[in-house]
Each structure stands twice: as C-alpha cells, then as structure tokens.
Amino acid sequence: MFGGDSAEREVSLKSGTTVLNALLRQGVDAIPFDPATRPLTDLLSEKIDRVLIMLHGRGGEDGSMQGALQLLNIPYTGSRVLGSALAMDKIHTKQVWQSLGLPTAKYEIADKRHFEAGKSSAIMDKLGNEVMVKPAREGSSIGMARVTSAKQLDIAVQNAFKYDNQVLLEQYIDGPEFTVSVIQGQALPSIRMSTPHTFYDYAAKYQDDTTEYFCPSGLTDQQEQALALLSTRAFDGISGSGWGRIDVMQNSDGQFYLLEANTVPGMTEKSLVPKAAKVAGLSFDELVMAILATSLDHPVSLDDTPVGEE
C-alpha cells in the first residue's frame, strides 16, 4: 500500500514501487494499492491476505490506516494504532520520552490558536538562540526550518502553520546526526549523515547528491552499543513495533539526544534503512521480506527465512 494523499505522497510512491518490485522478485503474490484512488473495501473484494504499508505521513503513518485495517481484520506491517499515532506526533513523542527519563532537547510548543509573535525573543533566549521549527505531524522534514533570530522564528512558525496547527520549537543541537533502524526489536548499525545544507532537509534526503552517509558511523563500540540501546528503548517507549527508525543528535560532549521516531521510514534508493541493513548483511530484498514478516502475529527471526508458516 503506497501513495495516499499526504504531503509525502511523492516519496511514498517511490518507496512503494521499489518495495513492490522486491516482493515480486521474491515470488510474493503482491499488487499495488493506492488508497487515494481506491476505497479500502477493495482490499476485501481482492481477498488481500495482508498489507505491507509504505504510506508515509498522515493517513498512513499516524494510526488511522492501522485502525481501518484492524476493523477490516487484515494483518499489516509495522507499528499498531497507538505506536503509529504517537510517533507521528513529534510533541507527544518528546513528552513520552521525557516521562521515561530519555534524553531529548529542550522545547516549546507554538499553537496556531494563540501564538504571539512578540514572545519569539523570549523563546529564542530560552532555547539557546538557535532553534529548529517543526510541524508536529509532518515527516520528511516538510515545513521545517533552522532559525537564529526572533524575526526568522516568526516567519518559520507561520510557514509551519501551513502544515499543522501545532509546531514544535526545539533547541538546536550542534553536532552530528545519526539514525538507527530497528527491526523486530534489533537495532541495525547506526548511520551518520553529513550535508552542506543548514540541516538534513527534504532536498538533502531525496534530491541532492551532496549528502554523505557513513555506516559504520565512526562511533566507538561502546558508543554504538549505547546508541543502539537508547534507540530500542525509545522505540519501545512509544509502543513502536515491527520496524522503524529513530533519529538522534550528538552534542560536543558526546551526549545523544532523541529527535523523533519514524514508523514507516522511506525505502527509496536514497533511504537510510536499506543502507543500514546492507552493512548488517541484509540485501534489500531480504530487508523487505523481514518487514513483510512483521505482519505476522509471531514474526520469524531475521536469521531465518523471513516469511513462512505462522
């Protein structure tokens, strides 16, 4: 299932097409399904056994599709309703992580109903005069901005309000960015990203060839283990299941700070999960079959053939 009508439709179409081709190569009887063009009841008339969700963003990654599939009694891949809904909301994700004592950057919330631009200077002072502005419920860095002044903050917040009524204002962490993929409870090798952009934005992720990816990421064995543990705890903490990705920043003191969780990460040729899986010894097709296996009540081990009898 890919496409949909979210702001991430283009990326979803690319991810879904790539994954569908892998399923067909592996002999899986798979068909494409775009919920933006077909009613979900067609899944029943098509006698679909299970759904591999490659929908990014709202309507596919926020728990609503997961709930609909549960009502239709059709198994699906990845996180269930609660985990999907929490991970899609950056603000609630941070609040859960804070309650668990997991490290995450200082933040403020801008609500469209009563945001006052006159408070921007105070917000900048509180968050360290360099702030990331993020729509609460968008992915792929859509609507995000990095600002260094109150005037820039005002402009960035108003732009972010085009995508969501709530906006996360987060202290900027000056240091390398890492991402850790989690599949069936196991953390894959971390990836460090480096881009000449002001941050790892949409263009850096999907359009430019200037972004560099390092896997192994250059961490010590001890740091790698600590990051893997932090990532699996963070994923479990928001009720994530099946597979997903945790994004992290590291400051100059070596402290890791959780950024956000993704329950349906990108699976294009530029995407991060396939890069980590390759270093872990999984081909793209093996990775796709492992993801498909998360639709089973008892997914098989990554060390076994991913799809078989339940």
From TrEMBL:
<dbReference type="GO" id="GO:0005524">
    <property type="term" value="F:ATP binding"/>
</dbReference>
<keyword id="KW-0464">Manganese</keyword>
<feature type="binding site">
    <location>
        <position position="260"/>
    </location>
    <ligand>
        <name>Mg(2+) 1</name>
    </ligand>
</feature>
<feature type="binding site">
    <location>
        <position position="262"/>
    </location>
    <ligand>
        <name>Mg(2+) 2</name>
    </ligand>
</feature>
<keyword id="KW-0963">Cytoplasm</keyword>
<dbReference type="InterPro" id="IPR016185">
    <property type="entry name" value="PreATP-grasp_dom_sf"/>
</dbReference>
<feature type="binding site">
    <location>
        <position position="247"/>
    </location>
    <ligand>
        <name>Mg(2+) 1</name>
    </ligand>
</feature>
<feature type="domain" description="ATP-grasp">
    <location>
        <begin position="94"/>
        <end position="293"/>
    </location>
</feature>
<feature type="active site">
    <location>
        <position position="140"/>
    </location>
</feature>
<keyword id="KW-0133">Cell shape</keyword>
<dbReference type="InterPro" id="IPR011095">
    <property type="entry name" value="Dala_Dala_lig_C"/>
</dbReference>
<dbReference type="InterPro" id="IPR011127">
    <property type="entry name" value="Dala_Dala_lig_N"/>
</dbReference>
<feature type="active site">
    <location>
        <position position="8"/>
    </location>
</feature>
<feature type="binding site">
    <location>
        <position position="260"/>
    </location>
    <ligand>
        <name>Mg(2+) 2</name>
    </ligand>
</feature>
<keyword id="KW-0479">Metal-binding</keyword>
<keyword id="KW-0436">Ligase</keyword>
<keyword id="KW-0460">Magnesium</keyword>
<dbReference type="Pfam" id="PF01820">
    <property type="entry name" value="Dala_Dala_lig_N"/>
</dbReference>
<dbReference type="InterPro" id="IPR000291">
    <property type="entry name" value="D-Ala_lig_Van_CS"/>
</dbReference>
<keyword id="KW-0547">Nucleotide-binding</keyword>
<feature type="active site">
    <location>
        <position position="271"/>
    </location>
</feature>
<dbReference type="GO" id="GO:0071555">
    <property type="term" value="P:cell wall organization"/>
</dbReference>
<dbReference type="GO" id="GO:0046872">
    <property type="term" value="F:metal ion binding"/>
</dbReference>
<dbReference type="InterPro" id="IPR013815">
    <property type="entry name" value="ATP_grasp_subdomain_1"/>
</dbReference>
<dbReference type="GO" id="GO:0005829">
    <property type="term" value="C:cytosol"/>
</dbReference>
<dbReference type="InterPro" id="IPR011761">
    <property type="entry name" value="ATP-grasp"/>
</dbReference>
<dbReference type="Pfam" id="PF07478">
    <property type="entry name" value="Dala_Dala_lig_C"/>
</dbReference>
<comment type="pathway">
    <text>Cell wall biogenesis; peptidoglycan biosynthesis.</text>
</comment>
<dbReference type="GO" id="GO:0008360">
    <property type="term" value="P:regulation of cell shape"/>
</dbReference>
<comment type="similarity">
    <text>Belongs to the D-alanine--D-alanine ligase family.</text>
</comment>
<protein>
    <recommendedName>
        <fullName>D-alanine--D-alanine ligase</fullName>
        <ecNumber>6.3.2.4</ecNumber>
    </recommendedName>
</protein>
<dbReference type="GO" id="GO:0008716">
    <property type="term" value="F:D-alanine-D-alanine ligase activity"/>
</dbReference>
<keyword id="KW-0573">Peptidoglycan synthesis</keyword>
<dbReference type="InterPro" id="IPR005905">
    <property type="entry name" value="D_ala_D_ala"/>
</dbReference>
<keyword id="KW-0961">Cell wall biogenesis/degradation</keyword>
<dbReference type="GO" id="GO:0009252">
    <property type="term" value="P:peptidoglycan biosynthetic process"/>
</dbReference>
<comment type="function">
    <text>Cell wall formation.</text>
</comment>
<keyword id="KW-0067">ATP-binding</keyword>
